[in-house]
Amino acid sequence: MTSRVTDESRRRLLLALAGTGALAGLEALLPGYARGAPLTPRAGNAAQVNGGVPGPVLLDFDVRRERVAIAGGHGSGITINRSIPAPLVELWEGQQAHLRIHNHLDEDTSIHWHGLLLPFQMDGVPGVSFPGIAPGETFEVRFPVRQSGTYWYHSHSGMQEQKGLTGPLVVHPASPHRVTADREFVVMLNDWTFDDPHRIMARLKSSGEYYNFNQRTVGDFFDAVEKEGWAATVRDRLAWNNMRMSPRDIADVTGATYSYLMNGLHPAVGWEGVFRPGERIRLRVINASAMTYFNFRIPGLAMTVVGADGEQVEPVDTDEFQIGVAETYDVIVEPQADRAYTLVAESMDRSGQALGTLTPRPGMRAAVPDLRKPPQRTMMDMGMDHGGMAGMAGMSGMTHGASASKGMDHGGMAGMSGMNHGASASKGMDHGGMAGMNHGAMEAGGGMGPVVGQHGPGDHGPGNINVAETLRYRLGEPGTGLEDVGHRVLTYSQLRNVRPMRDQRPPSRTIELHLTGNMERYMWSFDGVKYSESEPIDIVLGDRIRLVLINDTMMEHPIHLHGMFMELENGQGDRLPFKHTLSVLPASRASLLLTADEPGRWAFHCHLLYHMDAGMFRVVRVAPAEVLSHV
Predict the structure, then answer these.
(1) What's the pTM value of the predicted model, to 2 decimals?
(2) CA distances for 600 relative to 121, 151, 526, 624, angstroms
(3) Do β-strands 328-333 and 341-347 pair in parallel, antiparallel, or remain unpaired?
(4) Residue 387 class from Cβ within 10 Å (0-12 exposed, 13-18 middle, 19+ buried)?
(5) 478 vs 474: CA distance, rounded Å
(6) In angstroms, rounded to a whole number, what is the distance separating the alpha carbons of residues 143 and 125?
(7) What is the pLDDT of residues 610-630, one digit of tens each?
(8) CB count in 10 Å sphere of residue 459
């Protein structure tokens, strides 16, 4: 409780400092890139992607623990080249990268190159792909750059990522950009805390709701009674209590301890990028936070999404998108007016926001919108609402009473004519053929997606507290809290690859994993088995497989596969978009295709830092069949 009071006091102090302008002076103590840019004609250049002449790159990364000025205070952080966030790295497709990491810490460290295709020994995950970098040692990473796009890098050792060891990475294409821009900026989002991450973990272990200041109150109860009546309200409360859940559990760690930063800067100061009216600007948005989903928008300025997770997609016009932890989006904006625009990255739970400004003149600012009303979970997020299957129009033949694994009656699923009705849900429905689904109806920001199955038998043991009995296809939804915002919101189902799939073989095998957790004990896992007790997932080199993810929890999980891209089965025919990280919504079922063409041991995990640390992590082992048979 003492810490909560301290957090609140710090927040009040920050607001007071911001009001007097003192906070801007304090942020100026930040080093280099983290300081952003001074309010000069060169403002914004710190996050500007400069490009240049293609060629091989040799860079040194000095990792230190230092006292830093950040987020309106001073604290201990882990820097690279004396900077938080770490420096922008620019590489060139078709060239060599040579990156030397020097560990000046008194503990092991590592750097993972998030989304890059490279030999697994260079991937930077201690205990999976290499031993880690001991204090005083240097680790050299060498690889040919085989791709282009927006990526980032971060530590994979302990909680170092939460203490600042994250940085943006841009790979320039070997041929001219398919989508051109006059100017490019990195927009990197972080959640910073002055608390010790291990203390945060201990608090979450003691109470998964420790940082949730938005719990329901007695006043909320009587408000609900007035709207819904006594019987309905009591029934609703009993249902949530029986599940030991709260509809207001949106984020584990919130603005109660986090400051949300844009390019390393506190919202009271804000990052600034300067443009000339009429320019085409590419914003490379990176969610490098430890635990926070953001909703990104620029009031008054439409965006065109042209890249997701570093890969190109067909342009999609939108006004807002939700970006899960570890995802990246490239957007094009074309401000015509001689005015400033506020970049808003609102945390999904609405406990705070990171801010920046696109401006034609340094120092010009636009209005900052208030935080919107916090969202709430529903029974459908819990996979519990059998009565809510009204959205299954066109699926009238589905036998809801039976578990999918025991035989759904697909014969009457007229609205889903493209599905592989011969396959049971638990063994892999053919989402690649879901062209017959009415994705458009969901893209408008309406209700939840259609039911696609029900949970089979089994509860995944003590590591799991809930089973999503009713599974939905939710790739056409805008994301928690964005259902009724009154403007366009990007959905996964809108992402379409610019190129046809290179590998159009049908999958030879389906791997199904359930995302499981026990909030009371703060345990997170796949299939109820934490990492320390799990076995690797073996895939034969060259095989084409389908990966089915079923989220049995009431939270989003950004699931990341190292070393390879997955193709998201979102109904886009042979133009499925590539993803290295997929946000799997509660009570949903998503499937991806994977060509296992990168041999080695690869990490596969939830990218919420405290979930990964708690055990939501596996190793994917890719090797020739004869090798796997002898492991």
Answers:
(1) 0.85
(2) 8, 21, 21, 10
(3) unpaired
(4) exposed
(5) 9
(6) 16
(7) 999 999 999 999 999 999 987
(8) 14
